[in-house]
Design a protein that fits this description.
single chain; alpha+beta; elongated
Length: about 750
């Protein structure tokens, strides 16, 4: 697609006369895309005409001059001489008399005298006229029969065969037929015109026998039993001359019997097989050979099975039998199997009717079962096909299955709403849904929703239903829905009635008409030790049973005191308040903190001071961070070094912010980095997706700071061997709760507390 300059070498197609650049057409002709399918050559890009040779030279349009020079007074790419090209495919002796030009040559302007088709008249016509000349006279040419003449008007081509009906008789005279004149011309023998394929049956010249040949032209052959024609015995093994020497009587007429040689006949019989041919076992005789005494193996029609039968029971028409094998090959339709018994077909044509629905969707294919798609429905309607409003019409005949015409008018059907109609006339029974934006209440009547299409009926606001259930205790927890909250089922939400013993909800399935069942409480409660350091979540029923067990032990010790005559108060051991105040036992760390607290009181150390650097070191690292760091101390050490270097760089450098990107790592390591970043005052963000997710930390001047003790230092100090636990301290005061004091006794022997400063 480019301009063709007047000086550019070009090539012109001799079929469509399209002009291309010579270099472009060379590239195209050598490319694989230009090759013609099933032909040797290349295709013209415009008309697809196949050419055998690739153009190599630049010639003018008439082809006489190579590399023509351009002149202003001549047509570009022409030589300026007379074209002289012949009209291809036309009976014109003249050549084109125009100057070298593009495109096809005009018709020849000369006139000439031309004979009509029958050759009786002459007419003056334009040279090269393709149409033949016809006169108004009869043709009268001799027809194929050689007897009659053509009665049609002057016409081209061969005359039609003679249409006259003649009656012909066969050579033997037993059969006649009606045929067109000219049939079997030249086969007549003066008596008959054709052979009827019957036995001739005419009397031979001997007068004793009849002709046994198939109907033939006259004359018949001589009698085959004449003495001068018979040279051998009936079996053909011995010449009659030898038999005459042995004393046999000579034959005078055709009626005399032929002497027998006395040998076995040996003529081949029609039974037997190709491998073993049966022969006549009788002695040399005249006439037909008798029946065979052997057996023959015959095959069924499809040659799948064989059967052995006596030759006497075989006839020429019963040489085969049908087996019970069914044909499993596919028929030509490709859909059904043949299933014929002892099938001998090669094509296996399907006799069934196709019956598939046609494209119209109304009729079925009535052709024999076939491959591929069915043809279009041949039925048509002669009524006008209109759209629903009648504005667009398709006039008959209308092929079956044609859809109603498209209409640009607005739909005129009756609609359910009174909103403006924006869709066009359509052939479907149901109109498209109305999309006009309206306000509608949600299904639960919670709020009035705006910008809702008119066709939407059931709208959910997404809020909980919160309608009171039939039980009267609970509310519906489903999102805004349609219809009843509970359909054919009872409320299964947990009961919220407080228990009498612990005050927690019942949590049994809703039972509005029955009392709460006596089940163990599954609520989780948080237990603390006496000093408040230890915390542990425990199920309420287990905590109560633990307290009851401890209380039973305490009660047993009280009973021992009662036996010694002391009075014991047991009311506090069985109250609900005491059950609720079940506590954990303090461990060694609790005792260590208690000792530190007493030391602080002895040395008058306040809570604000931190002489042992306890709060500034260990308190900043959470227990979960310590637990994760213990799994990979080397990784934590490397991360802390990177963070310390980042904080020092931002504090000493010119920039107020500086970031560091850690390599991709798993989720546990990323969590450690995020937790450490909070301790160092760094901003941490995770980027990318798994498995290449990584963490970027950013240090900010004035906000980021290194802790006085690293996490690895804290963990190493905790993992060192600990000193023995301190000796528990018991104050000499009257215990207000004797039951609890008995629970916390560790050693019965009195011990000395060397750190007691009171």
């Amino acid at each position: 697609c480019e301009l063709v300059r007047v000086t550019a070498p070009v090539w012109s197609c001799q079929s469509c006369y399209h002009v291309f650049h010579l270099n472009c057409i060379k590239k195209w002709a050598r490319s694989p895309a230009s090759q013609a399918d099933g032909q040797s050559g290349w295709r013209c890009p415009a008309c697809q005409n196949v050419s055998a040779h690739v153009p190599n030279t630049y010639t003018c349009f008439c082809g006489k001059v190579k590399n023509p020079e351009w002149s202003r007074n001549e047509i570009p790419h022409s030589c300026g001489e007379v074209c002289r090209k012949k009209q291809p495919g036309q009976d014109c002796p003249h050549s084109c008399n125009l100057l070298c030009h593009p495109g096809p040559c005009p018709p020849c302007p000369a006139f000439m005298t031309k004979t009509c088709e029958c050759g009786r008249t002459r007419h003056t016509v334009r040279c090269g006229q393709a149409a033949s000349v016809h006169c108004s006279n009869p043709c009268e040419n001799l027809l194929n029969c050689g007897q009659h003449h053509c009665a049609e008007l002057c016409h081209g081509g061969q005359c039609q065969p003679c249409r006259i009906i003649l009656n012909q008789v066969c050579y033997c005279g037993s059969t006649s037929r009606d045929v067109l004149c000219g049939t079997d011309v030249g086969k007549s023998d003066g008596f008959g015109d054709f052979g009827c394929l019957k036995i001739c049956g005419k009397d031979l010249k001997c007068g004793n026998h009849t002709c046994s040949q198939v109907c033939h032209p006259q004359p018949c052959q001589p009698c085959p039993r004449l003495p001068q024609l018979v040279r051998c015995c009936p079996c053909g093994q011995t010449p009659l001359s030898q038999l005459l020497e042995l004393g046999s009587s000579g034959r005078k007429t055709c009626m005399d019997p032929v002497p027998s040689c006395g040998k076995v006949c040996g003529k081949p019989l029609p039974c037997g097989s190709l491998d073993f041919i049966h022969t006549c076992e009788k002695l040399c005789h005249e006439g037909d050979c008798g029946p065979c005494s052997r057996t023959s193996v015959i095959s069924c029609r499809c040659s799948f099975r064989t059967k052995e039968l006596p030759c006497t029971s075989l006839k020429s028409e019963d040489a085969t039998f049908m087996c019970d094998k069914r044909c499993n090959k596919k028929r030509l339709c490709g859909r059904h199997k043949c299933n014929e018994i002892c099938c001998v077909d090669k094509e296996h044509k399907c006799p069934l009717i196709c019956g598939r629905k046609l494209r119209c969707g109304l009729h079925r294919c009535e052709e024999p079962c076939h491959r591929g798609n069915c043809q279009s429905c041949w039925q048509a309607s002669f009524d006008e096909l209109t759209c629903h409003c009648g504005a667009s019409v398709i006039y008959p005949p209308v092929p079956c299955g044609t859809r109603p015409p498209e209409c640009t008018q607005t739909c005129a059907r009756v609609h359910e709403c009174d909103h403006p109609v924006y869709h066009s006339c359509h052939s479907e029974e149901k109109c498209p849904p109305c999309t006009f934006l309206t306000q509608k209440w949600c299904m639960g009547k919670h709020e009035l929703r705006s910008n809702i299409p008119c066709h939407l009926a059931d709208i959910s606001c997404g809020l909980p239903c919160s309608a009171t259930l039939p039980c009267g205790m609970h509310k519906c927890q489903r999102l805004c829905h349609k219809g009843e909250c509970l359909v054919d089922e009872a409320c299964k939400q947990p009961c919220i009635t407080p228990r009498a013993d612990c005050g927690h909800p019942c949590m049994a399935p809703c039972h509005p008409s029955s009392p709460c069942p006596m089940t163990a409480c599954k609520a989780k409660i948080e237990l603390h030790c006496e000093c408040g350091r230890r915390k542990e979540m425990m199920i309420c029923s287990e905590a109560s049973s633990t307290y009851q067990r401890i209380a039973a032990i305490s009660m047993a010790s009280k009973i021992t005191d009662m036996q010694l005559g002391d009075s014991v108060e047991i009311s506090k051991l069985i109250t609900k308040k005491e059950i609720h105040q079940a506590r954990l036992e303090c461990d060694e760390e609790c005792l260590a903190l208690e000792r530190k607290k007493r030391l602080a009181e002895a040395f008058h150390i306040t809570e604000d001071s931190d002489p042992f650097n306890v709060r500034s070191s260990g308190s900043k690292f959470s227990d979960s961070l310590k637990e994760d760091a213990r799994k990979d101390l080397k990784f934590v050490s490397d991360i802390e070094k990177e963070m310390e270097a980042l904080v020092e760089a931002v504090n000493k450098g010119k920039n107020s912010k500086k970031s560091h990107c850690f390599p991709p790592m798993n989720r546990d390591h990323r969590r450690i980095i995020h937790d450490l970043a909070q301790v160092y005052g760094l901003e941490s963000v995770s980027y990318d997706s798994e498995p290449k997710r990584n963490v970027v930390v950013t240090a900010v001047r004035g906000k980021s700071i290194c802790p006085p003790t690293t996490l690895t230092g804290v963990l190493e100090r905790e993992m060192q061997s600990r000193p023995p636990p301190p000796i528990p301290h018991h104050r000499h005061q009257t215990d207000k709760n004797p039951a609890s004091s008995n629970l916390q006794k560790i050693a019965k022997e009195p011990v000395i507390d060397y750190f007691d400063v009171q």
